[in-house]
Amino acid sequence: MITATDPTVTDQEIARHLTSAEVSNRSVAQKLGVSWGRVDEVRQRLQLPTYRRGRRVPERSWEEAVRNRIKTVAGGHAEWTGSRHPLGTPLLSWQGRAETAYRAVFRLHYGRVPVGNIKHVPDCDVEHCVAGEHLEDRVMRDARRAGGAR
Length: 150
Ligand SMILES: [Zn+2]
Description:
Layout: H1 11-17, H2 25-32, H3 36-45, H4 62-68, E1 70-72, E2 78-80, E3 91-94, E4 97-100, H5 101-110, E5 119-120, E6 135-136, H6 138-149
Antiparallel strand pairs: 1-2, 3-4, 5-6
Helix pairs in contact: 2-3, 4-5
The structure holds zinc ion (ZN).
The site of zinc ion (ZN) has 6 residues, from loops.
């Protein structure tokens, strides 16, 4: 029986190639020798944005790139429309560099480089929220805890 899908290629391998909306399903399918449908299935399961041809309008700054990928949603939370790590972490891929969207949003929002890990503030219960005011680094966490203990 002939099958269009190479069973030796894992979903994880497909996911590794699907790094952003600028990567087409077809190019990944051809590279890995799997069907277009299989790639599309992985893309949807990972909730990666659909490939949009001609989307590449050059962004002049990383600030602009961040703003273009943030979509504010109800409750003051924000959704990341850019690429994601296979585990769901929002990623900013811009000019060949990638970092977590949390770090980029934090820098944009607070105007400084975050210290330690970035986590969501206790009031934010939305997974992968990228609202600047819902992110805090170690400095802010320590200050909040010190304030609460007073
Ligand atoms: Zn939030």
